[in-house]
Design goal:
The structure is a homodimer. Chain A is built from nine helices and no strands. In chain A, helix 1 crosses helix 4, helix 4 packs across helix 5 and helix 8 runs antiparallel to helix 9. Chain A is mainly α. Chains A and B meet through helix 1, helix 6, helix 7, helix 8 and helix 9 of A and helix 1, helix 6, helix 7, helix 8 and helix 9 of B. The first copy, chain A, binds a DNA duplex through helix 3.
Chain lengths: ~190, ~190
DNA sequence: ATTATTTTAAAATTACCATTTTAGAAAGGG
DNA sequence: CCCTTTCTAAAATGGTAATTTTAAAATAAT
């Protein structure tokens, strides 16, 4: 047989993920991925197959780590209002002021013209968030299943818009107020 | 003196705008812009200066035509609820099912890492929408100026999120329901 | 220790991109 | 009618992209 891989795949995917989050798929060149991961292009191609494949793996890694952790940290076993507010506010306070970027938002926009190399992961990421929002909402005492499903999508729309406006340079304090209003009215409406 | 321009600048900007909306700045190569506009690269460079300049001009054109027309068509002299609903729903029904894309959304995301060649136009486009939303909301009988300003940003966040989710392939009927709920609660809240 | 096999690094390849240059065609003032 | 200016088209340039190939280093079973 032969030797083992010399690098930690998880660490490489995390680095690649960071590059894609910050600069998008197209602007992240192989050269930048070499610098970000510490691997040479030869190793990257040998280990993953190509840029598309690296992106796909990094995207899956994003869903499994960033998205799921975010859901777990803020929503799991917490009252809906408190958890959702904390989750949305946390988007404002990301290291670098949200400048890391959301792979879901970025990819939905970047690949709107054609197919995304991680199409399934994109859909899956959206579904993860939507289900988590829905689960949080149905836990409310006065919850209605059908309405929770619709409001979960509404929160997802709001979530994506928030990330766009953060990237667009909107004022953080203003957005904080907007988050409070949005969540209050959605939950207030359910309880009404 | 010398001869005149042989093409219609407005028509060229409209074509370039369409290309940028559909494929973004980076993916719209000069070759594609040649095909879209019918001009050769020589003429494009001679007339506009370069890709950045074409983008900037196309962006300004987008604000002046698409954004302003949209505001005028749906919000001018109409009750807030009716106008805003019509405006947001119209995003779903764009030719190609919203696949043309919004230059504001796309650019905010595409240029989040660095500077946008049309930075001022990007800010201006956001401001146009935000002011229009605000104006629509302050016209409500029970309006409060401060709250209207905040709710206008909230609508802008929602607007951007909607465009992301349209590009991300969300179900149109579901989004229609979400739009109705969002506008109803914002306006209901003001009247309450 | 040898050898087969894989990893790695670096150079080579191929393609495309933005831009410039060059050469030629088309005005409009004199 | 001519000649300068500006427009257009096409080829040329320089850079960078993704990927492949080549060669060397490393490893693990025999």
């Amino acid at each position: 047989m032969a030797r083992h891989l010399e690098f930690d795949e998880d660490a490489v995917l995390t680095s690649a993920m960071r590059a894609f989050r910050k600069d998008g798929y197209q602007r992240s060149s192989i050269k930048m991925l070499e610098q970000a991961t510490g691997l040479s292009s030869g190793s990257l191609y040998n280990s993953f197959g190509g840029k598309d494949a690296i992106f796909q793996r990094a995207f899956a890694h994003y869903n499994e780590t960033v998205v799921k952790r975010r859901i777990d940290t803020y929503l799991a076993g917490r009252p809906a209002k408190e958890g959702l507010t904390a989750l949305f506010v946390s988007l404002l306070d990301e290291p670098g002021g949200g400048s890391v970027g959301c792979l879901l938002t970025n990819s939905a926009v970047e690949f709107a013209g054609g197919p995304c190399p991680a199409e399934a992961d994109l859909k899956h990421g959206f579904a993860l968030l939507r289900s988590a929002f829905e689960e949080s909402l149905v836990s409310l005492p006065a919850a209605n299943a059908e309405r929770a499903a619709s409001d979960a999508l509404r929160l997802l729309v709001f979530y994506q818009g928030l990330l766009v406006m953060i990237r667009g340079g909107a004022d953080k304090a203003d957005l904080r107020k907007v988050i409070a209003h949005e969540i209050e009215t959605i939950i207030g409406d359910i309880n009404a």
